[in-house]
Amino acid sequence: MPEGTTKPAADAGELTDGFHLLIDALKLNGVKTIYGVPGIPITDFGRMAQAEGIRVLSFRHEQNAGYAAAIAGYLTKKPGICLTVSAPGFLNGLTALAHATTNCFPMILMSGSSEREIVDLQQGDYEEMDQLAVAKTMCKAAYRILHAQDIGIGLARAIRAAVSGRPGGVYLDLPAKLFGQVMNAEAGRKSLVKVIDPAPAQIPAPDAVKRALDVLKAAKRPLIILGKGAAYAQADDAIRAFVEKSGVPFLPMSMAKGLLPDTHPQCAGAARSTVLKDSDVVVMIGARLNWLLSHGKGKQWGDAPKKFVQIDIEPKEMDSNVEIAAPVVGDIGSCVQALLDAMGNAWPAPPVDWTGAVKAKRDENVTKMAPRLMNNNVPMDYHGALGVLRTIIKERPETILVNEGANTLDLARGVIDIYKPRKRLDVGTWGVMGIGMGQAIAAAVETGHPVLAVEGDSAFGFSGMEVETICRYGLPVCVVIFNNNGIYRGTDVNKAGADPATTVFVPGARYDKMMEAFGGTGVNATSPDDLRRAVNAALDSRKPTLVNAVIDPSAGSESGRIGNLNPQSALKKKQA
Known about the structure:
It is built from 23 helices and 20 strands. By secondary structure, it is α/β, with parallel strands linked by helices. Helix 7 links the parallel strand 7 (141-144) and strand 8.
């Protein structure tokens, strides 16, 4: 139905169609924003949704719209909606869908598709693809809606699947003919479903709570690890009360930073190696023993025997890598509150020699790092630049930090303190590059807070054209690109020919000119003082800004701090 036309009418009574039923179903379930890219067969749907009061943000690439929807789900606990065209557009959104599922972010990818009768006979329809079959391998659930009267129940199933239990990505297949199907308006209205309690509380068993507290009480060197699942739960007060009542040092994973301030006296972030290696009981709240924690074993964890207490909504997560002595299954808020209630009024403090040792190591490392963060070198190194941003975030704790790259990510994670929950967004469990601009856009849209996106120059390249999107919608986003002319560093040399080394970019690139081209503010910062002035001005103005932060090309190391994950050539080892 073309833009501006009214709902169809007929002698049999008022009619409606698939376009309006889907819009009404979304509105009934509180969907206020759609992220996507227009095109066949969903162009008119986007126009109509916009006309009906849903905010529809058009991106330059579906993958970035998907990353926006995924992080919107994380920030709101409601499924973020990504809308794409068929086949190629669907495939572009698929990486973000898999990313959402891996990271436990609720998201729904809605894609237009070719008609079933043509796809099934492989007759060569426009952008023909069995999208549902492909999507099923990448997400938590996948559904196809063939009839207008099923739109309400189809969307309800997608919403409930996305947010219930362990959240994740859901695919909703929308064949082109669905939108134009007509039915009686009253029957259509009755077919819509408002989802009630889509993510019901899952209360932990009392014996599981008692077992966990018995293990914790017997610990000599206890540690609490907070994962992004704890941040997603929005049980901030209960988590803080539990940590403080226990007196146990806590280690926040990167997106859990700020649940308690990184400057909190119990925070062991600056003593990470010590607490992982020397602890004897580890309580994990919304954290998984995946590669980010070396699977709970190996050199990082030391030789001291350990018992693990794990709080997670997914029972199958228990014992995934090591034995879990005290599994507590349920939603984070209910589990933490149950632990807190069962602790009583006189919980014993952990041994002073342990908490004192952690504090001493933390203070030692902070003191050691301080001079590196205060240097005014030109060209800048990572620490001098990050020291500036660290101070800015301290002064502006409401600012949301988006962060990706190799060295830019790994160093910023440890340097920049976060003071409030869900103020640090990054690459998550998959370590996927390219999330930056999508996350920055959604963070600004969903929260209204200013966003500081700190990007490696390589990571920015995956989504850089979305600076036009930032300018088009006038979002309060300041992008800082740490530009050292390459991936990891800009000094590698190809000794075998005239082509540049595979990790080297155009030297002296001026990314700031990109932002200027779209009407935003561009700044070339060559010193920490330049960087400080530019970022503060951007956050004050709330205008789209891109700062090209010139970093020493020789700064940086291979893959940041995870270079050990790169396989080494056996021949190279032998020659060494």
